[in-house]
Task: structure prediction
Amino acid sequence: MAFELPALPYAKDAFGDLISAETFDFHHGKHHNAYVVKANELVAADPALQGKSLVELIRSSKGGLFNQVGQIWNHTFYWLGLSPEPTKPSAELQAKIDEAFGSTDELIAKLQAEGVGHFGSGWAALVLENGKLAVKSYHDADTPVAYEGVQPLFILDVWEHAYYIDYRNARPVYAEKLLKNAINWDFVSQNLDGEGVSRADQPA
Ligand SMILES: [Fe+2]
Result:
């Protein structure tokens, strides 16, 4: 069975100007889809790669295939981490945020700085590491899935293709607007169970 482009968990126009329907047409319909198409081509051409889930491929591949399967997972997790409706961290997550960063505003500022400061394409992420929250960034198609002991809670796409339609070249404005208005805190809170990796996985 081939990997699929997962459906968006909301309507393409649900975010209004924050993330336009046109951005979803390109970012989900063209960029994310291209990773799916290319990964399936690579897997179809090599029997040794067949029979592995998306996450198994991420953890066992390098180079060209890693880039495609990493980006399939990263984008799926990114879409799940966004919500057009306002949400709030659970009490458990809020306590961890306050312990690690002082407040949700401080966490958002740290995620924003990490994403804006990341040189070139990549991802800013909130992860759980050794039971504590941490902000990290990953370059190009790199992904928290590839690191043992790291449990992803949320990732923000800082590739230019995430913001060029709605924000032109203004990565800081894109990052600030999404982080302040579009995080799906219900999803982030749920991922404290350590099962975040599996939520964007696909079977072989
Ligand atoms: Fe992207």
About this structure: The pocket of fe (ii) ion is lined by residues 27, 31, 75, 157, 159, 161-162 (CB under 6 Å). The chain has a mean pLDDT of 97. Residues 21-44 form the longest helix (24 residues). Residues 21-204 form a domain with the minor pseudopilin epsh fold fold (CATH 3.55.40.20).
